């Protein structure tokens, strides 16, 4: 690293510590195996002839086989606890990783969990509709009900929450993908974690590329990188919505 790089790294470390202090003001329950590894992709880098590629292993977060939603759930489930919730409600596609990790988090914390799964494919193949994450949802103790593709899933969750409230329960609704201002805190924290790892390893990260769907991951990374004044270029690869709609979701 050059003298300029070292100076920038030192400033970055100070800003990361300041961000960590600010994040500590929000309720958080530890669910993940963090920090996740930052590993070199030597063979792929060689195959492509550069650039130097690294992967942030958020598949190793640990909760029910891992995944990125664990970071969001650390803040969402803490908020649910702070609000006295005893039942968690969320939604996703049939094989939703978010639903699986939410069911696991609820089981770990002794809460009931209701999952609404939207049929976005029309498939009747039981290997798709009954196995994989759907089976894991049930093994984690969640109740699972299905909705047709195109259903207003937010309205469906609210209707279920109203029913739970009428039965004397205290529901907490988590949006699809865990993507709201609370869930996004998980990836504000990830931006700090990644930057600290890169600094410690002497890696000058130029660009960060990730998948973006429900938008919470990207929104958190945008906010986190901005908070530490990082020059890293962030590129989200949309998995569902058109570019303009996806960008609107991120900034909202």
Brief overview, please?
The protein is of the alpha/beta class and 252 residues long. Helix content is 46%, strand content 16%. The strands form 3 sheets. The protein has a 4-stranded parallel β-sheet, sandwiched between helices. A two-stranded antiparallel sheet has the order 1-2.
Order of helices and strands: HEHEHEHEHHEHEHEHEH
Helix count? 10
Number of DSSP-assigned strands: 8
Strand residues, percent: 15-25%
- Derived from helix and strand composition plus strand pairing, the structural class reads alpha/beta
**CATH top level class name of the largest domain:** Alpha Beta
Shape from CA axes? globular
Number of domains: 2
Poorly predicted spans = none
Q: Look at the structure and give the mean pLDDT.
A: 95
Main sheet record: 4 strands, parallel
Radius of gyration: 19 Å
- CATH topology of the largest domain, anyone? Rossmann fold
List the helices and strands and how they pair.
Elements: H1 3-23, E1 38-40, H2 42-48, E2 54-56, H3 69-82, E3 87-93, H4 97-108, E4 112-118, H5 126-129, H6 133-139, E5 143-147, H7 153-166, E6 171-174, H8 185-201, E7 207-212, H9 216-227, E8 233-238, H10 243-251
Parallel strand pairs: 3-4, 3-6, 4-5, 7-8
Antiparallel strand pairs: 1-2
Helix pairs in contact: 1-8, 3-4, 3-8, 4-6, 8-9
Provide a descriptive summary of the structure in words:
This protein has 252 residues and is of the alpha/beta class. It has two domains: 3-30 and 180-251, Rossmann fold (3-Layer(aba) Sandwich); 68-174, Rossmann fold. 46% of the residues lie in helices and 16% in strands. The chain has ten helices and eight strands. The protein has helices spanning 3-23, 42-48, 69-82, 97-108, 126-129, 133-139, 153-166, 185-201, 216-227, 243-251; strands at 38-40, 54-56, 87-93, 112-118, 143-147, 171-174, 207-212, 233-238. It has a four-stranded parallel beta sheet with strand order 5-4-3-6, with helices on both faces. The chain has a two-stranded antiparallel sheet with strand order 1-2. A two-stranded parallel sheet has the order 7-8. Helix 9 links the parallel strand 7 and strand 8. Helix 3 (69-82) crosses helix 4 (97-108) and helix 4 packs parallel to helix 6 (133-139). It starts with a helix and ends with a helix. The mean pLDDT is 95.
């Amino acid at each position: 690293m050059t003298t300029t790089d070292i100076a920038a790294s030192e400033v970055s470390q100070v800003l990361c510590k300041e961000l960590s202090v600010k994040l500590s003001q929000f309720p958080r329950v530890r669910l993940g195996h963090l920090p996740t590894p930052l590993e070199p992709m030597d063979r792929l880098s060689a195959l492509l002839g550069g650039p130097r590629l690294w992967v942030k292993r958020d598949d190793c977060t640990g909760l029910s086989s891992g995944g990125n939603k664990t970071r969001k759930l650390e803040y969402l489930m803490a908020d649910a606890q702070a609000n006295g919730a005893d039942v968690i409600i969320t939604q996703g596609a049939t094989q939703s990783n978010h639903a699986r990790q939410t069911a696991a988090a609820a089981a770990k914390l002794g809460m009931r969990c209701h999952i609404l799964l939207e049929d976005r494919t029309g498939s009747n193949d039981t290997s798709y509709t009954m196995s994989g994450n759907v089976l894991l949802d049930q093994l984690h103790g969640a109740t699972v009900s299905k909705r047709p593709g195109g259903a207003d899933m937010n309205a469906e969750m609210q209707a279920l929450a109203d029913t739970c409230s009428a039965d004397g329960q205290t529901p907490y609704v988590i949006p699809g993908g865990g993507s709201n201002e609370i869930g996004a805190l998980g990836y504000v924290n990830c931006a700090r974690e990644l930057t600290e790892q890169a600094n410690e390893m002497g890696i000058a990260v130029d660009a960060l590329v990730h998948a973006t769907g429900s938008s919470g991951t990207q929104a958190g990374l945008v906010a986190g990188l901005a908070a530490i004044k990082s020059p890293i270029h962030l590129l989200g690869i949309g998995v569902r919505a058109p570019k303009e709609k996806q960008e609107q979701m991120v900034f909202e």
